[in-house]
């Protein structure tokens, strides 16, 4: 099939550090190419892929040269223009248009958007189906009017739990996100520390993970992004506990840097408090043979096999109890769960079935 992959442009493909949506789009693209499909991926400058690449903007938004990103907004008397930094919303519109203009000419059998609502307005204007993966964007109520206006277009959920955020859309399938297994080597022998990996934001519960680790008497390693809007949360709820001994912050790690930390962890804490539609960390940990202790929110009960690849808990007390049972989990069972359900090849086959049915 002739597939247009409309990737996000916050980070290049593949992302070197953070960039979960870009990572999914990259993994899917590479696996579809291996299946023999003709894929054209629309992405930011600096991207790499084995598919046909169309660089729609010169840089990803998060890697745009600092000299331009930090440029002050000021009136230039010589030109009469208001100068300033690049406008991300304009760049994203140009990115989408580059794909849709070619789709309107009949170049593709299907367009697959990873831009949640931003490409929807073109869905009735092009000659092929526009498939959208929401990546949890229905969590934001302000987005709902756009989704509801185009509710008849085909949507793919990345978990059954995601559908509860906006149940009236035309969901044509649930396709779980998939990872490349070779990026997460298996390890059966574990150390004693626990790991928190993810954004250090309130809904991710890093403060809860700290409490669980302390009450369990285990060392906690933490890795992830500190977003500007959550610096106060980090400084008050997380940073005071970081002492380099009982709690250590490793910074924002790339997948390559995080993989060996997954491999040796006794368990990964996933203490979210919102309906997260998926959780790549939960899959990456299990691929490494590492069990999870996760709260009963979002997709986690779908990803974890309770008592076999980890524990789904309802309180801090339950999590502390589960920490004492981590040795009962067989690392091989964790790896097997990912091999059967959450690989990039499984994801690609799922989407290929969707494309074929729609086209």
Features of this protein?
359 residues, alpha/beta, Rossmann fold, 2 domains, 7-stranded parallel sheet, 6-stranded parallel sheet, 12 helices, 15 strands, globular
Task: Tell me briefly what this model is.
The chain is an alpha/beta fold and 359 residues long. It is built from twelve helices and 15 strands. It has helices spanning 20-34, 66-69, 88-104, 144-149, 206-216, 231-238, 255-264, 280-287, 300-303, 316-323, 331-341, 344-358; strands at residues 2-6, 38-44, 52-57, 74-76, 81-83, 110-113, 130-133, 154-157, 170-174, 194-197, 220-223, 247-249, 267-270, 292-295, 310-313.
Protein model, in words:
- By secondary structure, the protein is an alpha/beta fold.
- The chain folds into 2 domains: 2-178 and 343-358, 3-Layer(aba) Sandwich (Rossmann fold); 181-341, 3-Layer(aba) Sandwich (Rossmann fold), CATH 3.40.50.
- It contains 12 helices and 15 strands.
- It has helices spanning 20-34, 66-69, 88-104, 144-149, 206-216, 231-238, 255-264, 280-287, 300-303, 316-323, 331-341, 344-358, and strands spanning 2-6, 38-44, 52-57, 74-76, 81-83, 110-113, 130-133, 154-157, 170-174, 194-197, 220-223, 247-249, 267-270, 292-295, 310-313.
- The strands form 3 sheets. It has a 7-stranded parallel beta sheet with strand order 3-2-1-6-7-8-9. Strands 12-11-10-13-14-15 form a 6-stranded parallel beta sheet, with helices on both faces. Strands 4-5 form a two-stranded antiparallel sheet.
- The radius of gyration is 21 Å and the shape is globular.
- The mean pLDDT is 96.
